[in-house]
Queue: 2 jobs
Job 1
Amino acid sequence: MIRSMRDDIDTVLIDRARLGARIADLGSEITRDLQALHPDPGQIVLLPVLTGAMFFAADLIREIPLKIRVEYVSVTSYPGTATQSRGPRLRIPLPENLGGKHVVIVDDILDSGQTLSLLLDLISRQAPASIRVCVLLHKIKKQETSPPLKADYVGFEIPDAFVVGFGLDYDDYYRNLPEIVTLKRSLLDGSGSP
Ligand code: IMP
Ligand code: MG
């Protein structure tokens, strides 16, 4: 029998109930801000950053009762068993129809900010009407080397540890854990945190 992933958990940082409650709040906040723009139908685009944000975005969009479209981008920065970013890389071309739209980028976690900086740079070249960034988690470093990019909406601030679950992975596993957890130290390679 395959061993349960639950055996690999060290600590549960955020359980399913807290995730659900916070995502509902974020949905209300985003709804209110988008309504204030008085957009025409078809002008709002939610842009999840796959693969990590797929669970978060699926829950979030169902808390936004507006007519919005969903596009997606796919970015990788943690190849294989890395626990430190190797620099973001687009896996598929960006949607090309973002000009004039109100774009809400949805990502799982803001760490170094490299992924979101790259996306903001590429998307702004299409001249969207506005861009907002929503992240489920913001990892707070003890020492920031450069000023961190600021997300417009943050679900939770977490300490500087490698986390998995609710979309976040280690070597492409653990995305299907329903909560945000840290893994037992012995499971992670020696490439960085925690
Ligand atoms: P950044 O470019 O350093 O801000 O990293 C953002 C991306 O790195 C996220 O979208 C995640 O896919 C990945 N990432 C950052 N921290 C973690 C973590 O603790 N666990 C799993 N993936 C992470
Ligand atoms: Mg990601």
Job 2
Amino acid sequence: LEESILRATQLDQRSQRLALLNQFSGDLSTSLEVDDILKLSAELFLSALSVSTVAAVLISDDHNYVLTKEMPASEEKLPRLLPDNAMLNHLSQSLGVFSTPDIMDVPELASLLQVYFTPRNICSLLIIPLDTAVKLHGWFWLSMEASHRFSPSEIELACTIGNQAAIAIQNASLFEETHQLVDELETRVRERTAELEEEHRTTQTLLKISNELSTGLEIDNILERTLSILNDTYGAEQALILLADGTSRMFSAGLSLVQPLEGFDFFSRTRPEREISGWVLLNRTSTLIENLITDSRWDFTDVDEITFRSVYAIPLIIGDQILGSLQLLHRKEGFFDVEKMGLAEATSRQISIALNNAELLDLARDQSDRLIDMLRDQQIDSSRSYAILEAVADGVLVTDATNTVTLFNISAERILKLAASDVVGQSLNNFMDMFELSAKSWMQTIERWSQDIHLYQGETYAEQLELDDGSIILIHLAPVILGSNFLGTVTIFRDITPEVVVDRLKSDFVANVSHELRTPLTSIKGYAEIMLMGASGSLSDQQEQFMETIKSNSERLSVLVDDLLNISYIEAGQIALAVKPIDLLKIAEGVLQGITKRSEEDRKLMDFDLEALSDLPVVYGDPEKVRNILMNLVNNAYNYTPENGRVVVHILLKENEVQIDVQDNGIGIEPEQHSRIFERFYRGENALVIASAGTGLGLAISKVLVEMHNGRIWFESSGVAGEGSIFSFTLPLLRKEE
Ligand code: ADP
């Protein structure tokens, strides 16, 4: 019976334990808090194993031993860090169970005696691991004040409770981790959503600003709108753009913390916003000013009133080009957050680009305006020129660089008897066929110039063209050159047939009359000489004087007639040179003798001098013609110099020629007459000129004769009476064979 009672008791105990364990697992399954699990486990240990104290020691993440729970609770504040311990170190490796009836027998526990066991009068100890396959969480310490050897069944029960508790802790910590993870994720999602919203807002704003800036039309309005968007975005009270382009313009939106001031000096130190602008441009970096008054970079003590405190300033720079600065202002200090200024920076870049574009646009506009003006001017010019060319009485033919005819005016049509429609657009070669040989040299000149314009030396090309119908056309040709480019040619045609015909008639008439005058003149002169010689009886003094006058006048008359004849011969091309070595000195002396005699006869006394080298080289020429030339010049000098004047003939040796100067101190030639002096029949209007007999042919003849000798003739005269004139001509030092 005793045995069956014992068994029954044992059974009873067992079923009680099972019930407790059941209850325990049930309780555990509802708990996800480590603290609850430890509490439940400790309670079970206390009731099921009759131990006096239960402690839970957990291993922290940084591998420290932490006394987390104690039952019954002591006065100690938990959790509490335990010192390092050899036994625990060993158990954390072996994952085993440890029990002892007396802790004093176990030296490995020494480090824990003072901190835990001794104050609680503990003697026997059972250590159960809180171990799952994943991790060792720590231990339960079951202890008694009495010495007690824990039986295998007690240990087994304790282990079972320990295992269940470990699993529950594992679950709890998993749950905890999951929970934390979820929390973390939620926070991250919330943060990211906020970031995205911020980014979205920034992008939207930037897009708005970009749109504003890219319209690029009225830069002033655009900048102001952009600034007010920035104000809205950052809550700034005023946004500014200060330009550094020399115009010192300022754009502003928001309040008027900074007043615009026309024409300020950009880097002036009297206004804070300008100095800040100078600073960011000098340093080429943006800056955040928390409080302008206390910022050590500036000292605005002498500035009257600064309303704003917070500034965010960004330089507007493209490459090397400094454009100005962008500034956001607020009266509150520390208003702007440097972290959030990305948008402002991006905007500043866009503004820089827009400003730059605007400048380029302005430049392009100016340029195109100028070009349009130029084009219009040119069009007006060219249509005016065209109209003028069409209207002139002379024929005009214009060719381009490819020798194609581009203009043939109405007069040209009339003069050349060709229709413009047959000529314009034609190559010059086709045109040449219409004229045959007579126009050859003219066409060849154009051809030559078009091939190499450097052949053109500034000469004027003139030619007479005789058309099949006998009309005479004077051609003047000139190239059109721009820089060193040949653009074409202009040819002017003038029909000179009537002039040529009249000229011929005049020459013929003059030649005939002169010829007819010669015979009677010769006999007048001859008879006067015979009578002077006394062939018709002696003459009274008065008669002799009259005869002398008749003789000298008939001589002068014959000179005039000779002039007239000469010019007719010259015009008719009927004059030739009889070239031989000549003695210039002798010719000059002869001429001067003649004039001296005349001056005595005229009772108009003058000095006549000859200044020449004695050993002049031999000059070849026609002595009669050279005498004519010199005589003409000396006669003029005599005629156009009042009494007691002086006439000097100089003969000078130049490099390849001999130069003869005839200098007088007479009436001179007024500048306005200079161009006409060598014209045929031209005579000056001075009283002395009119009083003297003359034809106006002397110089014209002299010029032709000099040029026939390949010499040159010219004169110098100031036109002031008394300063006289110098007429000069040259004769080349010809070798005989030339
Ligand atoms: P002419 O002497 O018969 O008038 P010329 O052809 O010799 O014709 O000269 C043309 C004009 O030039 C003269 O009428 C005169 O006005 C001017 N002239 C020529 N030589 C001189 C001179 N030495 N001094 C002043 N005038 C001169």
